[in-house]
Every structure is written in structure tokens, then in C-alpha cells.
Amino acid sequence: MIVITFYTHHSAQLTNKMIKNSGINSKMAPVPRKLSSSCGSCVIAECDTISMELVDEDFEAVYKAEDNSYILLCSNE
Fold first, then answer.
1. Torsion angle of alpha carbons 60, 64, 70, 75, nearest 10°?
2. Total domain count, the chain
């Protein structure tokens, strides 16, 4: 599972729509407590990897969720 955090709620909405349109199951959710986020919303995608072309440019970070922990794949600072 991939968890993507964002600086704005609008970017989370755009990304969720792009991921769903690509055929990957995804949903918006509150950011897990173990992670921080500027807007409090994240997108959870049911996949092992994600094409960054599907992620809005205003993302904060992309994590892979494994065994109740999160591995940082990339960040946008």
C-alpha cells in the first residue's frame, strides 16, 4: 500500500482522482498519526509502487506502508 501526504487538500483530491482514473483503487483519508502532513489529508493507494505522473506536484511525501510502519520513498521539499 502507498500513502501520499500533501501540502493542500486540493492536491490530495486531484491525485486521488488521477490514481482512480488509472485503474488503481485509492481513497482519501486522514494522515496516519505516525506521519505528519500540512493539510491533514492523504491518499492511500492499493499498490506497491506508484507512478509520480499520477501524483500532483504539491505532494509532501510518498510512503510505502509495511507491517504497521512507513518507509519514505520520496519527499518534495
1. -20
2. 1
